[in-house]
Amino acid sequence: MYEQIRRNRRASWLLMGFVVALLAALGYAIGAAVVGGTNGGLGLLGVFGIVAIAWSILGYYSGDKMVLAVSGAHQVTHDDEPQLFNVVEEMTIAAGLPSPPAVYVIEEPAPNAFATGRDPQHSSIAVTRGLMQLLDREELQGVVAHEMSHIRNYDIRFATLVGILVGMIALVADFFLRFSFFGGFGRRRGGGNSNDQAGAILMVIALVLAILAPLAAYGVQFAISRRREYLADASGVELTRNPLGLARALNDIAGDPQPLRHANRATAHLYIANPLKNKKTKEVSGVFDTHPPIQKRIGILLEMAHVGPEALVPGRRAAGLPSHDPPPPPAVPPDPPA
User: Fold this and answer.
1) Which DSSP symbol is given to 35?
2) pLDDT in tens, 19-32
3) Which candidate, 193, 237, 196, places its Cα nearest to that of 33?
4) Range 52-167+209-244: architecture per CATH
5) Which one of 81, 108, 139, 147 is the catalytic residue?
6) Which range in 16-20, 81-85, 194-198, 287-291 is most confidently predicted, on average pLDDT?
7) 129 Cβ partners below 8 Å, 6+ apart?
8) CA separation for the pair 68, 146 (Å, rounded)
9) Residue 81 bears catalytic tag
10) Rounded to two decimals, what is the model's pTM?
11) Could you state, in order of their start, the residue ranges of all structural domains in the chain?
12) More confidently predicted of 95 and 187
C-alpha cells in the first residue's frame, strides 16, 4: 500500500509536468501559426508564461475562497457544531498540524466533504449537513481524517495549481479555435508559396493541438485526483488507526442517491466522493472520472482492517438513530454515609 502511495506521488508530479509542457507546446504552436516562425512561437510562449504566473498567483491566494463561495459553504464555530469541531481538533492533533483548519458547512442533504486552501495554516474543511446527519462519530472521524490528510500532504495546493493550469489551457484553446473558425487568424503575411504552405501546416498543427490539448489536460487533472484519493484514504487511516470507520463512511455515502446541487465539474474532483452521482456505477476508472471506483476504495480499506463486506453497517440516518451522539447520562450522586 505505502509503496503504491510513493509511486502515486511521483506519477502525480510527472503528470503535472506534462500539463505545463502541454501549455508551453500550445502557446508555441499558436504563436508560430499566427505570428509566423520561431520568433512568433517564442513570443507568444512568453506571453502565456506571464499570464500563467499571474493567474497562478491569483488562484494561490484566492482559490479557496472562490471554491467555498461556489459550493455554498458557510463558516461555523464550536458553539454551532461542537461534535464536528471536536473531531476536527482531534484529527488536527493526530496529523501534527499547528492549528485546526477553518470549518464550513454546506446546507445540503447529500453527504459529502472536501478540503481546500494553500497550506495547513490557510486551509478549510467543508462538510455537508447530510454527512453529519448520516454518519456516526467514528465514520465522521474517518472522513475528516481523509480531508485532513489532503491538507497535511499539500494536496490542496497541488490540486489548485493543476486546476488553474488546466483551466488556462482550455481557455486559450477555446479562444484560438473561435477566432480561427471566424477567420480572425486566417490571414498571414507570406513571402511565397513555400511560406504559405508552411503557414498552412503550422495552422493545422495548432488547430489539432488546440482541440486535443484540453482533453489531455482534463484527463491528467482527473488522473491526479484519483491518485490523491487513494493516498488520502491511506493517510487518513494512519491518523485514526481505524480503516473500518472510513470504509463504512464511504459505503454510506455511496448508498445515498442524492447529487450535490452546488457541485459542478470544476469542483467535483475536490470532494471525497463524486458529488455528481453518476447513475451507472463503474468498476473500472475511466480517463475522465474524477474519483476512483468507490467500491475499490472500500475493498482496500476492508483489506487493511482484515474484515469482509459483512463488517459494513448503515449509518445513523439509515439505521433510524439520532444524527449526533446522545449526551452522557447525568451523574448519580453517591449515597450519603450511614
Assistant:
1) I
2) 777 777 777 777 77
3) 196
4) 2-Layer Sandwich (3.30)
5) 147
6) 81-85
7) 105, 106, 107, 108, 109
8) 18
9) no
10) 0.75
11) 52-167+209-244
12) 95
